[in-house]
Amino acid sequence: MTETTDKTTAGSVRMWPALTFRDVDTMIDWLRAVGFTEHSTYRNEAGEVEHAEWLWPEGGGIMFGSDTTGIVRNAGGSAIYLITRDPDGAFERALSAGASVSRALEDNDYGGRGGSVLDPEGNHWSFGSYQPS
Question: Which ranges carry the VOC domain (predicted)?
Fold first, then answer.
């Protein structure tokens, strides 16, 4: 297990999207490159991630684990919107870490700026400055 010492940020998060990854170590590298920080990661004796909690530094978090059965239906089929003050930077970090463009960055008619990528497993991530009210 790996665990950070500051639990105050994680304790204030009230929604944790849950993902399953086929290649969890590749996705851990991708999440770290995009800007997520590890809160805790629990591995079994075989080294598979049974449970992980990672935080988005501007608020929020995700939980994830390894697809150890090969039959998890949502592996690669999730979609998440991340609010950030720097959508261009997050978008570029995602691409540099292996994502592909799904929707180019643009200024939105409803406010904010954003764009979308597909991560190495096909999950859809949108990075934007628009904060729903």
Answer: 9-130
Per-residue pLDDT band for 7 (boundaries 50, 70, 90) equals: very low
CATH number at residue 81: 3.10.180.10
CA distance 14 to 56: 13
Mean pLDDT of the chain, nearest integer: 88
In b/e form, how buried is each residue of 17-33, taking b as 16+ CB within 10 angstroms?
eebbbeebeebbebbee
Query: CB 42: neighbour CB atoms within 10 A?
Result: 14
**What is this structure's pTM?**
0.84
Is residue 3 assigned to a domain? Answer: no
- pLDDT attached to residue 6: 46
The stretch 39-64 carries a mean pLDDT of 95
Per the structure, the count of domains in the chain is 1
Reading the block at residue 10, the tokens are 């994680």
Mode of pairing for the β-strands spanning 124-128 and 79-83: parallel
